[in-house]
């Protein structure tokens, strides 16, 4: 861990509330709410600190960047004086929206890591862990560095990784900054996790958390159960991958796909890029995203994967400078690398890991298929006496900060019905709230489940593929 500094930093939100320099002087710096943080350090020195701790399993960097959302219709904001908030006029060519976010910098060198400032992605790199084995416990270590904000060099926001719902033994690694460490620009902090409870979670920065969550410092994370690797037969079919330690194979699956829900409110993203403050009571998201994209971009394939480095995260290939390689033919999706398209064979059981870090409730509806809900908020659907409380539904509803584990069984292939003769059957998965499905004409939270004839697709080796 980096040495704590005695430097004090004032929250910029409190700074803005002091309406002028004269007010600031009158108030007196001693009256401002200070917080002890990791102090500033040169990037080269920060990188060198890694050698003082055990090497991390993953290394993330927090920074800013730009993503691409449908450029039409143009949005203006009444509360911000009628300015155009989407597309942002500051956006580089091919992009529309300013974000904060994380990047996976695990396998980059120091020069490449430093160069990822202003190259955040959304959603954040997904990652997963195995449930700890009590007979041979092993800690999982994740380093976080703060690369700074290129678009807003005047800001000194710290960052953390808060694993929402995860039961930390001590608060030191929780990421909630009043009881743990917040990482200022150039510093490195190592989180230590020992995951004990399987299921689907999510993670986010907990500094200025309403803003940082909404700006994009969010992503899915899940824990796989100890039962994985054993063979259990359920309904006549053997499985070796499970959502939970069910004992009977009832949560067995062939393929798994995260379905991460987030939102973009143009006022907030524009305000952060233009040194303004939005009126949060006016919150009304312009875009509702699934795995960081809106329909039909949700159907575009993942960016090229770095399979060799996808042990605990779905790593994306990088170029010589360490930047992300974009999906083929879609340079505008360079920083939205994850698809939301589900592909499976007839007869497959498919685990959908829903997680919501938007501020609105999601009601994900699957047309023509039933989902069996086997877990909620990383808790299996079992009563205290072990009674199975799972249930089938065509719509699953979950609020902000909640997760759902649902399994579908792909039906027999019917000859391409509903898929324009593409060789698969297509079933639509969408948020039934109209304004979240089409975003007033600009795409939305929608994707497809494509069912191919039995044995068409090879066995899944990585999630979301």
Explain how this protein is built.
The protein has 465 residues and is mainly beta. It folds into two domains: 1-36, no CATH class; 37-452, Cupredoxins -  blue copper proteins (Immunoglobulin-like, Sandwich), CATH 2.60.40. The chain is built from seven helices and 26 strands. The chain has helices at residues 12-17, 21-27, 43-48, 110-114, 209-215, 266-273, 434-437; strands spanning 8-10, 34-36, 58-67, 75-77, 83-86, 97-104, 127-130, 140-148, 162-164, 188-193, 199-204, 218-224, 232-234, 237-239, 255-264, 287-290, 342-345, 349-356, 362-366, 371-376, 379-380, 391-393, 395-398, 403-409, 425-431, 446-452. The strands form seven sheets. Strands 15, 16, 18, 20, 21, 22 and 24 form a seven-stranded mixed sheet that branches. Strands 17-26-25-19-23 form a five-stranded mixed sheet. The protein has a four-stranded mixed sheet with strand order 6-3-8-10. A hairpin with a 5-residue loop joins β4 (75-77) and β5. The chain is globular and about 60 Å long. The model is unreliable at 1-10 and 14-51 (pLDDT under 50).
């Amino acid at each position: 861990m980096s040495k704590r500094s005695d430097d004090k930093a004032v929250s910029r939100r409190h700074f803005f509330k002091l309406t002028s320099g004269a007010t600031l002087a009158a108030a007196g710096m001693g009256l401002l709410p200070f917080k002890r943080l990791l102090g500033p350090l040169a990037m080269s020195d920060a990188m060198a600190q890694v050698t003082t701790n055990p090497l991390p399993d993953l290394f993330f960097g927090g920074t800013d960047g730009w993503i691409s959302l449908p450029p039409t219709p143009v949005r203006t904001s009444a509360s911000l004086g009628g300015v155009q908030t989407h597309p942002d006029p500051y956006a580089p060519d091919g992009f529309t929206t300013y974000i904060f976010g994380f990047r996976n910098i695990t396998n980059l060198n120091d020069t490449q890591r430093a160069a990822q400032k202003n190259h955040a992605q959304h959603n954040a790199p997904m990652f997963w862990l195995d449930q700890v084995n009590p007979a041979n416990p092993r800690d999982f270590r994740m380093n976080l560095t703060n690369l700074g904000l290129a678009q807003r060099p005047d800001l000194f926001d710290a960052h953390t990784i808060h694993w929402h719902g995860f039961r930390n033994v001590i608060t030191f690694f929780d990421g909630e900054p009043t009881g743990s460490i917040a990482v200022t620009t150039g510093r490195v902090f190592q989180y230590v996790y020992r995951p004990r409870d399987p299921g689907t979670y999510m993670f986010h920065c907990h500094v200025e958390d309403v803003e940082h969550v909404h700006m994009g410092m969010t992503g899915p994370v899940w824990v796989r159960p100890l039962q994985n690797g054993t063979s259990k037969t359920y309904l006549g079919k053997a499985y070796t991958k499970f959502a939970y330690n069910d004992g009977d194979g009832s949560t067995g699956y062939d393929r798994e796909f995260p379905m991460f829900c987030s939102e973009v409110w143009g006022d907030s993203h524009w305000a952060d890029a233009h040194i303004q403050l939005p009126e949060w009571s006016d919150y009304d998201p312009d875009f509702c995203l699934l795995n960081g994209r809106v329909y039909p971009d949700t159907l575009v394939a993942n960016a090229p994967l770095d399979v060799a480095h996808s042990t605990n995260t779905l790593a994306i290939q990088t170029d010589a400078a360490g930047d992300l390689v974009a999906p083929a033919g879609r340079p505008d999706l360079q920083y939205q690398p994850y698809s939301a398209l589900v592909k499976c064979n007839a007869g497959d059981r498919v685990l959908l890991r829903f997680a919501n870090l938007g501020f609105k409730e999601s009601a994900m509806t699957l047309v023509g298929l039933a989902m069996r809900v086997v877990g909620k908020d990383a808790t299996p659907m079992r009563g205290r006496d072990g009674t199975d409380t799972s249930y089938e539904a065509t719509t699953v509803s979950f609020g902000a900060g909640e997760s759902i584990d649902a399994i579908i069984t792909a039906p027999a292939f019917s000859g391409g019905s509903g898929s324009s003769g593409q060789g698969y059957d297509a079933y639509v998965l969408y948020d039934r709230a109209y304004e979240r499905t089409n975003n007033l004409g600009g795409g939305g939270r929608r994707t497809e489940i494509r069912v191919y004839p039995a044995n068409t697709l090879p066995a899944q080796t990585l999630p979301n593929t």
